[in-house]
Structure formats: C-alpha cells, structure tokens
Design brief:
The complex is a heterodimer.
Chain A lengths: L1 H13 L14 H12 L17 H15 L4 H12 L14 H30 L7 H14 L1
Helix pairs in contact in A: 2-3, 3-4
Chain B lengths: L1 H26 L4 H30 L6 H6 L6 H6 L5 H22 L5 H25 L23 H30 L4 H32 L10 H26 L3 H24 L12 H25 L14 H33 L7 H18 L2 H4 L7 H7 L1 H18 L6 H23 L6 H10 L2 H25 L2 E7 L4 E4 L2 E13 L2 E12 L2 E6 L2 E5 L5 E4 L1 E5 L2 E10 L5 E8 L3 H18 L8 H7 L6
Chain lengths: 154, 657
Amino acid sequence: MRAILILLTMLWLALPAFAVNPDEMLSDPALEARARTISEGLRCLVCQNESIDDSDADLAHEIRVLVRERLKAGDTDDQVRQYLVARYGEFVLLKPVFAWHTLILWIAAPGTLIIGGVVLIVASRRRRRALAAPAGELSPEEQRALAELRGDQA
Amino acid sequence: MGIELGHFALILATAIAAVSAVAGFVAWRTSERVTLMLRQGAVLQLLLVAAAFAALIQAFVTSDFSLKLAYDNSHSLQPLLFKITSVWGNHEGSMVLWVMILVGMGAAVALFGRNLPRELMTLVLSVQSTLVAAFGGFTIFTSNPFLRLDPAPLEGQGLNPILQDIGLAIHPPLLYTGYVGFSICFSFAVAALISGRIDAAWARWVRPWALLSWCFLTLGIAMGSYWAYYELGWGGWWFWDPVENASFMPWLAGTALLHSALVMEKRNALKIWTIFLSIITFSLSLLGTFMVRSGVLTSVHSFAVDPTRGLVILALLAVFIGGAFTLFAFRASALRVGGLFAPISREGALILNNLFLATAAAAVLVGTLYPLLLEALTGKTISVGAPFFSLTFGSVMAPLLIVLPFGPFLAWKRGDLVAVTQRLAGAAGATIFVTILIFALSGASISLAPLGLLLGFWVAFGAVAELVDRAGFFRMAPSQSLRRLTGLPRSAFSTAIAHFGLGISVIGIVAASAWSLELITTMEPGTTKTIGDYTLHFSGITDTSAENYSAEMGNFTISKPGEADRRMTPERRVYTASGTPTTEAAIETYGFGQLYLQLGEKSADGSQVVRAWYKPYVTLIWLGAIVMAFAGFLSLTDRRLRVGVPKRAAVKPAPAE
C-alpha cells in the first residue's frame, strides 16, 4: 500500500497539474459553493495533509470532478461525503466521523478541560480551608531558617 | 581535511559531554572543581560543535562534493546563500544545527549563570551534557554528516527547489533556537528534582530562558507560516500539518510555562506544576523533533525519511521523557506547596490560562498522534485535518480570549472581579463599537466572523486599557498620567504589548479567513479581470531564467482606484538540477491586506489559468506574532528579570539615618 502511495506521489511530482481549475467549476454558483465547502473537508489521498481543494494531484482533480458530478445528480452534501467514504474509506474525510473508534479523539479536549477544571476546584476548596484555618506553628526547620535569617541581618 | 577535523570535533564534543554528565552527576554535591570542569566543558562543547558546523559550511560553500551530504543537497550553481542553507536543509545537517544550539544554550548557562548556586549550576550542566551526549551520539552514529564519496562526483544533486528560499535561512535557526532553548528549562527542572531544592529564586532563573526560547519559537513559527503562505502557493497560512503542530505544541506549553513561572516567582506557588510544564515543554520539542526527523509522518516538511533513525530517536525520547517523569513522580511530592490565594485573583487567572493552554496543547497532541496510533493498533486509517483542529482548538481558545483581559487587572492573592469589570467597561464598549462600525462600513454578511473580531478587539483593547488604567488616564491630569506611564516597569509594558499582539493576530486570522476573495479564471493575453477593487491586466507570458532555474513569467498590471498601478509576475519554474517544476506566487501588499497571484496551467491557445486571492488584513497575523516576540524581548531587558540583580539589591545596606 505504502509503495503504491509513494509511486503515486512520484507520478504526481512528474506530472504537474493544478488545484481547482476553471474548467472544473460548475456554472451554478450555489452548487459550486457547495462543492467548494465539501472539497475543503476532503483529503487528497495521495498528498500530505492537503485538501483536494488545495492539491495539484490528478487524483484530487478526479475527486473534485466527482463531487461536482454527484452534486449535479442531485445528491445532498452528506450523500456526496458518504459516496466518497464508500469509495475511498474514512481516510478521505479531514474531519473524522464521531464513532467508537474516534471517541478518544473527540473527547480528549473537553475531557482534559473538565478533569482539569475539577482538579482545580478541589484544590481551590482545599486552599480555602487552609486559608480559613489558623496559621500553624513553625516547623523546627523553619525556625532554624528564621533564626539564620535574623542572624544574618543582625 | 577540514571535513575530518569537523568530524573529529563533533566526536570530541560528544565525548566531553558524556564525561561532563557522569562527573557532574557523581560529584555535584561535593566538588567545586567538577563545577569548574563542567563550565569549561560546556564552553568547549560549543567551540567544537561550532567548528564541526563551520567545516560543513566550508565544504558546501566550496562545493566540495566529496562530502556526501554536499553532493546530495547542494549544487555548484546555487547562489551562495542557498549553498549555506543547504547545510541544514536535510536531516544530518539539521541535526548538527540542533546539537549546536543545544551546546550553545549550555555554554550560555556556564558563562552567564555566575549567580546560580554552585550545586544547581552543576546539575543543570550535567543534564544538559547528557542531552548533548545523547543527541551528539545520535548524529554521529545514525546520521553522520561527514561521510565522504570516492571518487568525488563533479556535480551535486541540488537542494529541493521548495527549500531554495530565504525562508530556509531564517525559519529553522529561529525555530530550533526556540525548540532547543526549552532544554534549559528541562535541565533546570530535572536539577531541581534531583537536588530537591526549588523556590521562587529557581523560577527567577528559569523564566528568562523560557522567555528567550518562547520569543524565538514565536518568530520561528510565524516565519514558517509566512514561508508556507508564499511558497506553497494556495494562499493558506496554517495547515494543521503534523509538522506545524509539532512546533505549535511546545509553543502552547511554553506559553503556559511563562505564565506559571510568573506565579511561582511572584508568589512561590504552582511549583510542582511549573516543574511539570518545564519537562512537558521540552518533551513536546523532542516529540516534534522525533516526528519531523523520523519520517513517521509523511508531510510537506519531512525532507528526511528513515525509520531506523526513528526508532533510535524514539528510544532517546523514552529515556529522557520517561526518566524525567519518573523522577517527577518520585520527587514532586517532596516539594512544599507555597503561597495561598483565593480563586478570584491574579494567580487564579493565570491558572485558568494554564488550564486552557494545556487543554489546547492536549487537543493538538491527540489530534496529531491519534491517527498514527489508531493505524498502528487497528489498521484503520483516518485523517485528522484542518476542520477538526479548527473546531476543537477554536472552542478551547475562544473562552481563553474572553477571560484574558481580566487577568492583568486582578490583584495578587485576592482580586475583585466587579471592580475589574468596571475598569474594563471602556475596552468592552470600544470593542463593540469598532466591530459594529466595521460591519456597517464593509456591509459584510453576518457569520461567525463578528464573534471572532469581537474577541480580537477585546483582547487588544483590554491590553491598552490595562496600561491606560495603570497610568491613571482619565482619573488625573494627563501630564501626571504620562509620567506614571513612563514610570511603569517594562514588564507591565511587555504584558500589555504581548496581549495586544495576540489580539492583532486574532483580528488578522478572522478577517483573512472571513473576507478573503477568490478568483479562479482563464485569461488570454491582453484581457482584464477584476477581484474586489483590483483590476488585473494580463499582458502575456515571457521566458526568464536565473542561475539555477528557467521560468515562464506571467506579466500582470494591477490597478486599484486611488493607487498607482503595480506589476506582478508570478512564475512557473523548472529547476535545472532536479528538473522539478514549481510555481512561484506573486504577492503585493496593500495596506494590511495582500493580493496573491498564482499561475495555473497554460492552454495550447495561449490562454492562462490564473488564481488570484485578495486577503484583507492577512499581514496582521504575522505582525501580531512579531509584536508578541518583541514584547518578550522587551521583558527580557527588564532589570528585575536579570538574574541576580534582586539578590544584590537585597544585601545593599540600608542608608544611614
């Protein structure tokens, strides 16, 4: 699989094509705008983290044309995406679906925020209790440090 | 001969580092002479690695293709600047640069850290030397830049055309200085954990290093972003590419570190967290190095792909990060919790800042690594791209930006939120007024953009309001306020300026994303098209060439009402050495906005595909970053940050009465 990808990448380097071309674009501006929005969320499979909208690769060109064909055939945006996922796999979506295998990915940020927030609230409660409590006696170590400081200043 | 001397110098530096590390860890408690040895060793390491680096530069400049690295990455026709930058435009050479900055940081501690307690200095240099020994060894054994070819080829392969740019001269050195600078914070943290001594003074010593690294990292990331913007040719400036994320995560953690170290220095609180952040920031830098260098990610930036190296770096990563965190787990509980404070206080605000920044870093980290882990564990391949990051990162940053202006207004220990809100009322009013004004004037459609703009102006005006408030404008005579303003410590200015810079960047990001205009069209010579207020006149394609490439150049004249006509010449280039075709965009700056032109395919009938974008206020994105870095440097010049100064002031005898 990887070898094929590398080969495809090399082919792509050898044959320069270009990102969205005027001849690909639909005459209906509303449909074209939808096509662009969908394209921004689709990965050019042979490139490195580029959307098909930005990519010069031939495959990206094919998918761009495909998206527009599906739209012209009357598909909704979601149907177009589903069609492409069925054809190329989930890898084609730059924004992963929310499912069991992506659960950790999606809950990582809110989870960190919530856990961090809870930890902070607990710590703050504990600090408030410490603030309310009368100041304790100095430990022997602190008293020694204090004596040392006083000795220095005298 | 020079090559072999350079090779020897690198080996010697690594050996000195290894000896320093062992000696330091054995005798840090007892021996004064070991401290002296480590300090001299640190300076020697720098001189030797610099000599090794100089040997490489000399070979590249003189096009000595008996050096394999020069053969692989340079070409005799390249301009001098690109011959030099070719040294680090590849894996081996960039590792030498990496190690050189690592030893540079160690030498800086040895030379300028005279006020450091002897034990702390010894331990810091020991940890730093361990890093040098490990990464020096890695360079020598798995990525030796000094290999020779016999017989020497007559001509080199040339540098990757995408890298033949002034960006390569600036971006990696800045970025590496930032990345690797955090190694000093790491070394300080590990030293503190080993010695068990950590206090406000520790934070005072660490903060300048964190600040310096942060400034360089900020500039490095901004430069990288601008480079990608003008080089990759579709007008994007941030792609959430794994390699970009790799540099962005240490930046987020480093920003958190700057703020938590402030709490530790001023209030002796957040010690454990600050130590943790110091370790995590450099760990993320190492992770970034691993991701870029190992080829584990295939991305536009990875010009080196070799999995065996990846395994060695992964092992080094495990040893350093794992070791530091093990030490942390055992020793952190020994650190005493310091200063007390109420939740609504400057400390509380800075903790909130840290919570959000840490969450943002976690979001980026998980988003970057998750697809790799999922594929390794289940074989499923998914993509995590810009739409995911924009959503998660954006929703973490928005609340942070909302609360940001409150922070600097709150008092230490116990703040008054109501009073602060009153003092920020002016800034809030100005924010809403300006945002509405912009929308009324531009007639733009209502979308998410107003929310983003509100945030940007809120942060920027909040920063101005802080200075205005502290100087007492509107409360006393202007002359008196001015005097107070000039009397404010530089750290107050740097806080306000840095936050102002952030606001500027946010405004740029929102405006450039929301109001970008795009024109994709076919033009015949002699025709005219318009994009916004700009009229493009295309007069045809001419052939041109330079030392190392030949090109087709599109000739455009841009007219805009009220402005003189300007000429723009985007190019399609073919580099002689590699035969690689590239496109070179043309960019013209109008005010804070930019017009961006790129050539597409040429048809047989002479018509030309042209892509044009107008990006309003796009330059604010990078200007904001420069303002932030400037604020950081300004803060570094603050007298109170200078190591040891407060100490001397404290022992100054009181004036006689």
